[in-house]
Amino acid sequence: MGFSISVDNFKNMSVKIKTVTKQLPKYSRATDEIIPFLDSWLVGQDERFIRKVKKIFEGALVDKRYSIMDPIEVFTKTSFEERNDIYVREVIDLGEKVLEKALEKANWNPQDLDYIITVSCTGIMIPSLDAYLINKLKLRQDIVRLPVTEMGCAAGISGIIYAKNFLQANPGKRAAVIAVESPTATFQLDDFSMSNIVSAAIFGDGAACVLLSSHEDDDGPEIVAEEMYHFYDNIHMMGFKLTNSGLQMVLDIEVPETIASHFPDIIHPFLEKNNLKMEDIDHLIFHPGGKKIVQTVESLFSDLGKNIKDTKEVLRLYGNMSSATVLYVLERIMDDSPKKGSRGLMLSFGPGFSAQRVLLQF
């Protein structure tokens, strides 16, 4: 009898998102301020090519990009070691600030955390960010830590999924997911491929922190369900190639079309398992991968009277910050105080190729 009660309690264990915060790097430039840097970078290139590159930047639907480096540093030839050193230094700083901000917003102490997940794919550091945060904030010595390093843009939601599973198995616990990314640290000065140019046009740097809880005293939207979806035979679609000059972007031109072709299989079965249809979803919390992906997703949902205005606005204000970006969308929606009982669907895509989904009830 006692065992059956504990099993029932486990099944009914509610995991909630307590709060979400963001932290932006110190440098930023509007798109029109970036164009002069393109002129100096593209000296000697064909005039038509230069016009095409500028058109890509101007048409990327990104008004402003933040960076851990001054633009002069971004467009200066440096070694992989020098760039990665900047990445490590700035990621630790952003991670500390965003976690402190989230704890303060939730009115939690650093010692309240039982689980810490750090997410980043745009640099290399061992020990990982979580180790530095344990020391800097004096987190508990028995805290469980998990660094997520190779899941790209999907990893923000991946971290939420891992935290949810840990918290569901451990009632009365609290977790932090910290995503810190610097795509500008991966910019390749000698690479004039469309992958490098498009990624430079759509990406920016940023950090976000999500605090989650299975503590009965904590409130926030409940994670009702979560699932990953893996595309077969699309490993070539997206990722990084480690070269002597750093992490070189791999970005296939067919990514939006591939996502569109899989969309029914990504969305509908997941919702059906929870006795829902797309019409029952009130808030679309989608990762703004870039202009074409945003337009693809928007066209798929416009017939249902749904909008992804928060996704578009995050892309416009900050660009694609890899794993952190969808968390910026979540923050906007949570700060808007959604109606009690309304539902949200989180979705992001990343290397592998994969899609991660989380169903929320506010």
Automatic annotation (TrEMBL):
Annotated Chalcone/stilbene synthase N-terminal domain residues: 55-214
On the tree of life, the source organism's domain of life is: Bacteria
Pfam families in the cross-refs: Chal_sti_synt_C, Chal_sti_synt_N
Could you list this entry's UniProt keywords, alphabetically sorted: Acyltransferase, Transferase
Concerning Gene3D superfamilies, the annotation shows: 3.40.47.10
| GO biological process terms on file | polyketide biosynthetic process
What residues sit in the active site?
A: 153
Tell me where in this chain the Chalcone/stilbene synthase C-terminal domain is found: 238-361
Instruction: List each coiled-coil range.
Output: none
Molecular function (GO) terms listed?
acyltransferase activity, transferring groups other than amino-acyl groups
Assigned protein family = Belongs to the thiolase-like superfamily. Chalcone/stilbene synthases family.
Put simply, this protein is called Predicted naringenin-chalcone synthase
**Which organism was this protein described from?**
Flavobacterium micromati
